[in-house]
Amino acid sequence: MDYLLKVVALLVTAFAIVIHLLTRAKKSCPANLPPGSLGLPVIGQTLGILRAMHVNSVDHWFGDRIGRYGPVSKFSLFGKPTVLLAGPAANKLMFFSSLLPPYVPLFSQRILGEKNILSLYGDDHRRIRGALMEFLKPDMLKLYVNRIDAEVRHHLEENWAGRTTVTVLPLMKRLTFNIISALVFGLEASAVRDAFAHDVGCMLAGMIAIPVNLPFTTFRRSLKASQRARRLLEGIMREKKAEQGDSPNKNLISHLLSMRDEHGEQVLTHEEIVDNSLIPMIAGHDTASTLMTFMIRHLANDPATLATMAQEHEEIARNKADGEPLTWVDLSNMKFTWRVAQETLRIVPVVVASFKIALDDIEFGGYRIPKGWQVLWTASATHMDPSIFPEPAKFDPSRFENLSSTTPPCSFVGFGGGPRICPGMEFAKVQVLVTMHYLVRHFTWKLSCKENTFTRNPVPSPRHGLPIQLQHKSTL
Protein backbone atom coordinates (compact mmCIF):
# COMPACT_ATOMS: atom_id res chain seq x y z
CA MET A 1 0.00 0.00 0.00
CA ASP A 2 2.87 2.38 0.78
CA TYR A 3 4.28 1.60 -2.67
CA LEU A 4 0.93 2.41 -4.29
CA LEU A 5 0.68 5.73 -2.46
CA LYS A 6 4.18 6.67 -3.57
CA VAL A 7 3.31 5.87 -7.20
CA VAL A 8 0.12 7.96 -6.97
CA ALA A 9 2.02 10.85 -5.40
CA LEU A 10 4.72 10.73 -8.10
CA LEU A 11 2.12 10.69 -10.88
CA VAL A 12 0.21 13.62 -9.38
CA THR A 13 3.43 15.59 -8.92
CA ALA A 14 4.62 14.87 -12.46
CA PHE A 15 1.26 15.87 -13.92
CA ALA A 16 1.23 19.11 -11.92
CA ILE A 17 4.75 19.98 -13.06
CA VAL A 18 3.82 19.43 -16.71
CA ILE A 19 0.72 21.61 -16.37
CA HIS A 20 2.78 24.27 -14.60
CA LEU A 21 5.42 24.32 -17.34
CA LEU A 22 2.78 24.51 -20.07
CA THR A 23 0.83 27.34 -18.48
CA ARG A 24 3.36 29.49 -16.64
CA ALA A 25 4.26 31.47 -19.76
CA LYS A 26 0.62 32.45 -20.22
CA LYS A 27 0.16 33.60 -16.64
CA SER A 28 0.84 37.16 -15.69
CA CYS A 29 2.52 37.56 -12.31
CA PRO A 30 0.45 39.73 -9.96
CA ALA A 31 2.13 43.03 -9.18
CA ASN A 32 3.63 44.05 -5.85
CA LEU A 33 3.79 40.57 -4.36
CA PRO A 34 5.72 39.99 -1.12
CA PRO A 35 9.37 38.91 -1.43
CA GLY A 36 10.28 35.24 -1.49
CA SER A 37 10.09 32.26 -3.80
CA LEU A 38 7.28 29.80 -4.50
CA GLY A 39 9.87 27.09 -5.07
CA LEU A 40 9.22 23.97 -7.12
CA PRO A 41 5.70 23.40 -8.48
CA VAL A 42 3.39 21.57 -6.06
CA ILE A 43 6.24 20.85 -3.61
CA GLY A 44 7.28 24.42 -2.83
CA GLN A 45 8.62 24.63 0.73
CA THR A 46 6.33 21.88 2.06
CA LEU A 47 9.04 19.29 2.67
CA GLY A 48 11.20 21.82 4.50
CA ILE A 49 8.52 22.88 6.96
CA LEU A 50 7.36 19.30 7.57
CA ARG A 51 10.93 18.27 8.29
CA ALA A 52 11.31 21.23 10.68
CA MET A 53 8.13 20.22 12.53
CA HIS A 54 9.38 16.66 12.90
CA VAL A 55 12.70 17.70 14.50
CA ASN A 56 11.15 20.58 16.48
CA SER A 57 12.95 23.35 14.62
CA VAL A 58 9.89 24.98 13.07
CA ASP A 59 10.41 28.14 15.18
CA HIS A 60 13.88 28.49 13.63
CA TRP A 61 12.42 27.78 10.18
CA PHE A 62 9.99 30.67 10.53
CA GLY A 63 12.61 32.87 12.21
CA ASP A 64 15.12 32.34 9.40
CA ARG A 65 12.48 33.21 6.81
CA ILE A 66 11.43 36.37 8.68
CA GLY A 67 15.08 37.36 9.08
CA ARG A 68 15.69 36.91 5.37
CA TYR A 69 12.56 38.48 3.87
CA GLY A 70 10.99 40.51 6.68
CA PRO A 71 7.54 40.18 8.29
CA VAL A 72 5.74 39.62 4.94
CA SER A 73 6.94 36.95 2.51
CA LYS A 74 5.58 34.49 -0.01
CA PHE A 75 6.26 30.79 -0.41
CA SER A 76 4.31 27.65 -1.32
CA LEU A 77 2.78 25.08 1.01
CA PHE A 78 0.82 21.98 0.04
CA GLY A 79 0.65 23.08 -3.57
CA LYS A 80 -0.84 26.53 -2.87
CA PRO A 81 0.80 29.98 -2.91
CA THR A 82 1.07 31.23 0.65
CA VAL A 83 1.95 34.48 2.41
CA LEU A 84 3.62 34.40 5.85
CA LEU A 85 2.70 37.34 8.09
CA ALA A 86 4.59 38.02 11.31
CA GLY A 87 4.29 40.48 14.19
CA PRO A 88 1.53 42.00 16.37
CA ALA A 89 0.08 44.09 13.52
CA ALA A 90 -0.03 41.00 11.31
CA ASN A 91 -1.74 39.00 14.07
CA LYS A 92 -4.33 41.75 14.43
CA LEU A 93 -5.07 41.61 10.69
CA MET A 94 -5.33 37.81 10.81
CA PHE A 95 -7.68 37.72 13.77
CA PHE A 96 -9.92 40.70 13.02
CA SER A 97 -10.19 40.94 9.21
CA SER A 98 -13.43 39.59 7.76
CA LEU A 99 -11.50 38.95 4.53
CA LEU A 100 -9.34 36.28 6.21
CA PRO A 101 -11.49 33.40 7.47
CA PRO A 102 -9.76 30.14 8.47
CA TYR A 103 -8.81 27.83 5.64
CA VAL A 104 -10.09 24.30 6.20
CA PRO A 105 -9.17 21.95 3.33
CA LEU A 106 -12.02 20.07 1.70
CA PHE A 107 -10.62 16.73 2.86
CA SER A 108 -10.77 17.98 6.48
CA GLN A 109 -14.35 19.13 5.96
CA ARG A 110 -15.24 15.58 4.92
CA ILE A 111 -14.08 14.44 8.36
CA LEU A 112 -15.47 17.34 10.43
CA GLY A 113 -18.64 18.03 8.43
CA GLU A 114 -19.51 20.90 6.12
CA LYS A 115 -21.32 22.90 8.81
CA ASN A 116 -18.49 22.95 11.35
CA ILE A 117 -17.68 26.39 12.78
CA LEU A 118 -14.09 26.30 11.55
CA SER A 119 -15.26 26.30 7.92
CA LEU A 120 -17.85 29.06 8.24
CA TYR A 121 -17.67 32.83 8.21
CA GLY A 122 -20.07 35.78 8.23
CA ASP A 123 -23.57 35.37 9.67
CA ASP A 124 -23.41 31.57 9.86
CA HIS A 125 -20.20 31.71 11.89
CA ARG A 126 -21.61 34.34 14.27
CA ARG A 127 -24.84 32.35 14.77
CA ILE A 128 -23.10 29.06 15.53
CA ARG A 129 -20.37 30.65 17.66
CA GLY A 130 -23.03 32.48 19.66
CA ALA A 131 -24.85 29.21 20.31
CA LEU A 132 -21.66 27.45 21.45
CA MET A 133 -20.62 30.36 23.66
CA GLU A 134 -23.94 30.22 25.50
CA PHE A 135 -22.80 26.83 26.79
CA LEU A 136 -19.10 27.71 27.26
CA LYS A 137 -19.42 31.14 28.89
CA PRO A 138 -18.14 31.53 32.49
CA ASP A 139 -21.61 31.75 34.03
CA MET A 140 -22.37 28.29 32.62
CA LEU A 141 -18.94 26.82 33.38
CA LYS A 142 -19.47 27.60 37.07
CA LEU A 143 -22.13 24.88 37.02
CA TYR A 144 -19.68 22.27 35.73
CA VAL A 145 -16.73 22.72 38.11
CA ASN A 146 -18.10 20.07 40.48
CA ARG A 147 -18.43 17.48 37.67
CA ILE A 148 -14.96 18.25 36.31
CA ASP A 149 -13.56 17.95 39.84
CA ALA A 150 -15.14 14.49 40.18
CA GLU A 151 -13.78 13.35 36.79
CA VAL A 152 -10.24 14.52 37.67
CA ARG A 153 -10.19 12.84 41.07
CA HIS A 154 -11.58 9.60 39.66
CA HIS A 155 -8.97 9.65 36.90
CA LEU A 156 -6.07 10.21 39.30
CA GLU A 157 -7.29 7.50 41.69
CA GLU A 158 -7.64 5.02 38.83
CA ASN A 159 -4.48 5.83 36.85
CA TRP A 160 -1.95 7.60 39.12
CA ALA A 161 -2.47 6.55 42.74
CA GLY A 162 -0.30 3.63 43.82
CA ARG A 163 1.90 3.77 40.72
CA THR A 164 5.61 4.56 40.56
CA THR A 165 5.69 5.39 36.83
CA VAL A 166 3.12 6.76 34.38
CA THR A 167 3.19 8.05 30.81
CA VAL A 168 1.65 11.50 30.93
CA LEU A 169 0.39 12.41 27.45
CA PRO A 170 -1.92 9.42 26.84
CA LEU A 171 -3.31 9.78 30.36
CA MET A 172 -4.00 13.49 29.89
CA LYS A 173 -5.72 12.73 26.59
CA ARG A 174 -7.88 10.12 28.28
CA LEU A 175 -8.78 12.58 31.04
CA THR A 176 -9.77 15.41 28.70
CA PHE A 177 -11.71 12.97 26.52
CA ASN A 178 -13.70 11.75 29.52
CA ILE A 179 -14.46 15.30 30.70
CA ILE A 180 -15.58 16.45 27.25
CA SER A 181 -17.61 13.27 26.68
CA ALA A 182 -19.52 13.83 29.92
CA LEU A 183 -20.19 17.56 29.50
CA VAL A 184 -20.66 17.77 25.73
CA PHE A 185 -22.42 14.48 24.96
CA GLY A 186 -23.60 13.21 28.34
CA LEU A 187 -21.58 10.01 27.79
CA GLU A 188 -20.48 8.26 30.97
CA ALA A 189 -17.92 5.44 31.19
CA SER A 190 -19.04 2.57 28.95
CA ALA A 191 -18.06 0.44 25.97
CA VAL A 192 -19.81 3.02 23.77
CA ARG A 193 -17.55 5.78 25.11
CA ASP A 194 -14.47 3.61 24.59
CA ALA A 195 -15.47 3.00 20.96
CA PHE A 196 -16.09 6.71 20.52
CA ALA A 197 -12.60 7.45 21.87
CA HIS A 198 -11.13 5.14 19.23
CA ASP A 199 -13.12 6.89 16.50
CA VAL A 200 -12.01 10.34 17.65
CA GLY A 201 -8.40 9.15 17.49
CA CYS A 202 -8.92 7.92 13.94
CA MET A 203 -10.50 11.25 12.94
CA LEU A 204 -7.58 13.21 14.37
CA ALA A 205 -5.12 10.97 12.51
CA GLY A 206 -6.99 11.57 9.26
CA MET A 207 -6.69 15.34 9.65
CA ILE A 208 -2.92 15.11 9.10
CA ALA A 209 -2.84 12.12 6.74
CA ILE A 210 -2.39 12.03 2.97
CA PRO A 211 -6.00 12.55 1.77
CA VAL A 212 -6.16 9.45 -0.42
CA ASN A 213 -9.51 7.67 -0.09
CA LEU A 214 -8.35 4.12 -0.75
CA PRO A 215 -8.94 0.96 1.32
CA PHE A 216 -6.60 0.51 4.30
CA THR A 217 -5.38 4.13 4.26
CA THR A 218 -5.45 6.36 7.34
CA PHE A 219 -7.72 8.82 5.54
CA ARG A 220 -10.28 6.11 4.66
CA ARG A 221 -10.27 4.94 8.29
CA SER A 222 -10.87 8.51 9.45
CA LEU A 223 -13.89 8.87 7.13
CA LYS A 224 -15.36 5.62 8.44
CA ALA A 225 -14.72 6.77 12.01
CA SER A 226 -16.44 10.09 11.28
CA GLN A 227 -19.51 8.25 9.99
CA ARG A 228 -19.68 6.10 13.13
CA ALA A 229 -19.25 9.16 15.38
CA ARG A 230 -22.08 10.94 13.58
CA ARG A 231 -24.41 8.00 13.97
CA LEU A 232 -23.63 7.96 17.69
CA LEU A 233 -24.31 11.71 18.05
CA GLU A 234 -27.52 11.47 16.02
CA GLY A 235 -28.68 8.73 18.40
CA ILE A 236 -27.76 10.86 21.43
CA MET A 237 -29.63 13.80 19.89
CA ARG A 238 -32.77 11.68 19.49
CA GLU A 239 -32.52 10.58 23.12
CA LYS A 240 -32.11 14.15 24.35
CA LYS A 241 -35.12 15.32 22.34
CA ALA A 242 -37.20 12.57 23.94
CA GLU A 243 -36.11 13.62 27.44
CA GLN A 244 -38.49 16.54 27.74
CA GLY A 245 -37.83 17.04 31.45
CA ASP A 246 -34.03 16.96 31.12
CA SER A 247 -32.14 20.13 32.02
CA PRO A 248 -30.99 21.96 28.87
CA ASN A 249 -27.74 22.81 30.68
CA LYS A 250 -26.86 19.18 31.42
CA ASN A 251 -24.72 18.80 28.27
CA LEU A 252 -23.98 20.66 25.05
CA ILE A 253 -26.33 18.67 22.81
CA SER A 254 -29.30 19.22 25.14
CA HIS A 255 -28.39 22.90 25.32
CA LEU A 256 -28.20 23.36 21.54
CA LEU A 257 -31.47 21.47 21.01
CA SER A 258 -33.23 23.77 23.49
CA MET A 259 -32.14 27.04 21.87
CA ARG A 260 -34.86 28.98 20.04
CA ASP A 261 -34.86 32.29 18.16
CA GLU A 262 -37.40 35.10 18.58
CA HIS A 263 -39.84 33.21 16.33
CA GLY A 264 -39.63 30.03 18.36
CA GLU A 265 -37.59 28.24 15.69
CA GLN A 266 -34.61 26.07 16.59
CA VAL A 267 -31.40 28.13 16.25
CA LEU A 268 -29.32 25.30 14.78
CA THR A 269 -30.26 22.52 12.38
CA HIS A 270 -29.60 18.92 13.38
CA GLU A 271 -26.67 18.77 10.96
CA GLU A 272 -25.16 21.89 12.53
CA ILE A 273 -25.59 20.43 16.02
CA VAL A 274 -23.83 17.19 15.06
CA ASP A 275 -20.96 18.91 13.21
CA ASN A 276 -20.36 21.45 15.98
CA SER A 277 -20.71 19.00 18.84
CA LEU A 278 -17.73 17.20 17.33
CA ILE A 279 -15.59 20.37 17.26
CA PRO A 280 -15.10 20.69 21.06
CA MET A 281 -13.93 17.09 21.12
CA ILE A 282 -11.58 17.41 18.13
CA ALA A 283 -10.18 20.79 19.20
CA GLY A 284 -10.27 20.33 22.97
CA HIS A 285 -8.91 16.79 23.03
CA ASP A 286 -5.41 17.95 22.12
CA THR A 287 -5.39 21.49 23.54
CA ALA A 288 -5.85 20.98 27.28
CA SER A 289 -4.11 17.58 27.35
CA THR A 290 -1.02 18.90 25.56
CA LEU A 291 -0.85 22.02 27.73
CA MET A 292 -1.02 19.98 30.95
CA THR A 293 1.58 17.52 29.65
CA PHE A 294 4.05 20.30 28.92
CA MET A 295 3.37 21.97 32.28
CA ILE A 296 4.25 18.68 33.98
CA ARG A 297 7.32 18.40 31.75
CA HIS A 298 8.56 21.86 32.71
CA LEU A 299 7.78 21.59 36.43
CA ALA A 300 9.88 18.43 36.68
CA ASN A 301 12.98 20.62 36.19
CA ASP A 302 11.79 23.83 37.85
CA PRO A 303 11.43 23.17 41.60
CA ALA A 304 11.02 26.87 42.44
CA THR A 305 7.96 27.27 40.20
CA LEU A 306 6.54 23.96 41.40
CA ALA A 307 6.97 25.03 45.05
CA THR A 308 5.15 28.32 44.43
CA MET A 309 2.31 26.48 42.69
CA ALA A 310 2.07 23.93 45.50
CA GLN A 311 1.90 26.72 48.08
CA GLU A 312 -0.96 28.37 46.16
CA HIS A 313 -2.94 25.14 46.12
CA GLU A 314 -2.23 24.23 49.76
CA GLU A 315 -3.63 27.62 50.81
CA ILE A 316 -6.81 26.86 48.87
CA ALA A 317 -7.04 23.35 50.37
CA ARG A 318 -6.67 24.65 53.95
CA ASN A 319 -10.01 26.41 53.62
CA LYS A 320 -11.83 23.25 52.49
CA ALA A 321 -13.03 20.11 54.27
CA ASP A 322 -11.54 16.74 53.30
CA GLY A 323 -13.09 15.58 50.02
CA GLU A 324 -14.86 18.88 49.39
CA PRO A 325 -14.79 19.65 45.65
CA LEU A 326 -13.32 22.80 44.19
CA THR A 327 -15.54 25.76 43.36
CA TRP A 328 -15.41 28.60 40.85
CA VAL A 329 -14.11 30.89 43.62
CA ASP A 330 -11.26 28.45 44.27
CA LEU A 331 -10.30 28.53 40.60
CA SER A 332 -10.25 32.32 40.62
CA ASN A 333 -7.56 32.14 43.32
CA MET A 334 -5.24 30.00 41.17
CA LYS A 335 -3.67 33.02 39.51
CA PHE A 336 -0.06 31.86 39.62
CA THR A 337 -0.99 28.44 38.20
CA TRP A 338 -2.70 30.05 35.24
CA ARG A 339 0.32 32.28 34.63
CA VAL A 340 2.44 29.11 34.53
CA ALA A 341 0.00 27.69 31.96
CA GLN A 342 0.20 30.86 29.84
CA GLU A 343 4.00 30.89 29.95
CA THR A 344 4.02 27.22 28.92
CA LEU A 345 1.77 28.11 25.96
CA ARG A 346 4.03 31.01 25.03
CA ILE A 347 7.11 28.81 24.78
CA VAL A 348 5.37 25.68 23.44
CA PRO A 349 2.12 26.78 21.75
CA VAL A 350 -0.24 23.91 21.02
CA VAL A 351 -1.06 25.54 17.67
CA VAL A 352 2.22 26.84 16.28
CA ALA A 353 0.68 28.16 13.04
CA SER A 354 -2.64 28.38 11.26
CA PHE A 355 -3.94 29.05 7.76
CA LYS A 356 -6.39 31.67 6.56
CA ILE A 357 -7.68 32.24 3.04
CA ALA A 358 -7.87 35.63 1.34
CA LEU A 359 -11.43 36.26 0.15
CA ASP A 360 -10.25 39.30 -1.82
CA ASP A 361 -7.03 41.15 -2.62
CA ILE A 362 -5.54 42.52 0.61
CA GLU A 363 -2.89 45.22 1.08
CA PHE A 364 -0.55 44.80 4.04
CA GLY A 365 2.93 46.06 4.80
CA GLY A 366 3.23 47.63 1.37
CA TYR A 367 2.49 44.36 -0.44
CA ARG A 368 -0.54 42.79 -2.09
CA ILE A 369 -1.93 39.44 -1.02
CA PRO A 370 -3.92 38.08 -3.99
CA LYS A 371 -7.43 36.73 -3.62
CA GLY A 372 -7.46 32.97 -3.06
CA TRP A 373 -3.94 32.76 -1.59
CA GLN A 374 -3.32 31.06 1.72
CA VAL A 375 -2.16 33.34 4.54
CA LEU A 376 -0.19 31.84 7.43
CA TRP A 377 0.45 33.23 10.90
CA THR A 378 2.79 31.72 13.46
CA ALA A 379 2.69 32.18 17.21
CA SER A 380 6.48 32.03 17.56
CA ALA A 381 6.91 35.26 15.56
CA THR A 382 5.68 37.24 18.58
CA HIS A 383 6.05 34.70 21.42
CA MET A 384 9.81 34.44 20.86
CA ASP A 385 10.45 38.06 19.85
CA PRO A 386 12.89 39.57 22.41
CA SER A 387 11.55 43.07 21.74
CA ILE A 388 8.14 41.87 23.01
CA PHE A 389 9.13 39.21 25.55
CA PRO A 390 12.66 39.91 26.89
CA GLU A 391 14.80 36.77 27.18
CA PRO A 392 12.12 34.79 25.35
CA ALA A 393 13.72 31.38 26.03
CA LYS A 394 13.53 31.98 29.81
CA PHE A 395 10.50 30.54 31.63
CA ASP A 396 9.05 33.48 33.55
CA PRO A 397 5.35 33.35 34.59
CA SER A 398 5.58 36.91 35.95
CA ARG A 399 5.33 38.16 32.36
CA PHE A 400 1.58 37.57 32.61
CA GLU A 401 0.96 39.54 35.80
CA ASN A 402 0.08 42.62 33.75
CA LEU A 403 0.53 41.57 30.15
CA SER A 404 -1.71 44.18 28.52
CA SER A 405 0.38 47.08 29.83
CA THR A 406 3.75 45.63 28.81
CA THR A 407 3.17 44.13 25.35
CA PRO A 408 1.45 45.27 22.13
CA PRO A 409 -2.05 43.90 21.46
CA CYS A 410 -2.16 40.50 19.75
CA SER A 411 1.33 39.53 20.94
CA PHE A 412 0.32 36.52 23.04
CA VAL A 413 -1.83 34.30 20.83
CA GLY A 414 -1.84 30.99 22.70
CA PHE A 415 -5.60 30.74 22.14
CA GLY A 416 -5.80 32.82 18.98
CA GLY A 417 -7.52 36.19 19.14
CA GLY A 418 -10.31 38.46 17.96
CA PRO A 419 -13.79 37.21 17.01
CA ARG A 420 -12.37 33.72 16.45
CA ILE A 421 -10.49 33.35 19.74
CA CYS A 422 -10.84 29.76 20.90
CA PRO A 423 -14.42 29.44 22.22
CA GLY A 424 -13.31 26.65 24.55
CA MET A 425 -10.54 28.70 26.22
CA GLU A 426 -12.33 29.06 29.57
CA PHE A 427 -13.39 25.41 29.46
CA ALA A 428 -9.75 24.38 28.93
CA LYS A 429 -8.72 26.70 31.77
CA VAL A 430 -11.07 24.99 34.21
CA GLN A 431 -9.73 21.55 33.24
CA VAL A 432 -6.11 22.66 33.64
CA LEU A 433 -6.59 24.39 37.00
CA VAL A 434 -8.57 21.54 38.58
CA THR A 435 -6.11 18.89 37.35
CA MET A 436 -2.99 20.79 38.44
CA HIS A 437 -4.55 21.41 41.88
CA TYR A 438 -4.68 17.70 42.64
CA LEU A 439 -1.41 16.82 40.90
CA VAL A 440 0.84 19.28 42.73
CA ARG A 441 -0.77 18.60 46.11
CA HIS A 442 -0.52 14.83 45.95
CA PHE A 443 2.47 14.01 43.74
CA THR A 444 6.01 14.97 42.84
CA TRP A 445 7.73 13.58 39.76
CA LYS A 446 10.92 13.21 37.75
CA LEU A 447 11.36 12.73 34.02
CA SER A 448 12.24 9.17 33.05
CA CYS A 449 13.96 10.08 29.76
CA LYS A 450 17.24 11.95 29.78
CA GLU A 451 16.49 13.21 26.26
CA ASN A 452 13.86 15.86 26.97
CA THR A 453 12.77 16.53 23.37
CA PHE A 454 9.52 16.70 21.44
CA THR A 455 8.21 16.73 17.88
CA ARG A 456 5.21 18.35 16.21
CA ASN A 457 2.68 16.24 14.33
CA PRO A 458 1.28 18.93 14.14
CA VAL A 459 0.71 19.52 17.89
CA PRO A 460 3.74 19.11 20.17
CA SER A 461 4.32 15.62 21.50
CA PRO A 462 7.09 14.75 24.02
CA ARG A 463 9.40 11.85 23.35
CA HIS A 464 7.71 8.53 24.27
CA GLY A 465 4.65 10.41 25.58
CA LEU A 466 6.55 11.80 28.61
CA PRO A 467 7.11 8.89 31.00
CA ILE A 468 7.71 10.11 34.57
CA GLN A 469 8.65 8.59 37.93
CA LEU A 470 6.04 9.35 40.58
CA GLN A 471 6.39 10.00 44.27
CA HIS A 472 3.27 10.30 46.45
CA LYS A 473 3.01 13.21 48.86
CA SER A 474 -0.43 12.33 50.25
CA THR A 475 -3.49 10.26 49.44
CA LEU A 476 -6.19 11.66 47.18
UniProtKB/TrEMBL annotation:
PROSITE patterns from the UniProt entry: CYTOCHROME_P450 (PS00086)
Pfam families per the UniProt record, alphabetical: p450 (PF00067)
UniProt xrefs under InterPro entries: Cyt_P450 (IPR001128), Cyt_P450_CS (IPR017972), Cyt_P450_E_grp-I (IPR002401), Cyt_P450_sf (IPR036396)
Claim: Oxidoreductase is one of the keywords in the record: yes
CDD domains: CYP90-like
Gene Ontology terms: biological process: sterol metabolic process
Molecular function per GO: heme binding; iron ion binding; monooxygenase activity; oxidoreductase activity, acting on paired donors, with incorporation or reduction of molecular oxygen
Keywords: Heme, Iron, Membrane, Metal-binding, Monooxygenase, Oxidoreductase, Transmembrane, Transmembrane helix
Protein name, as recorded: Cytochrome P450
Keyword Repeat part of the UniProt annotation: no
Sequence positions that bind heme: C422
Classification via Gene3D superfamilies: Cytochrome P450
Family membership: Belongs to the cytochrome P450 family.
Cofactor: heme
Recorded metabolic or biological pathway in which this protein acts: Hormone biosynthesis; Plant hormone biosynthesis
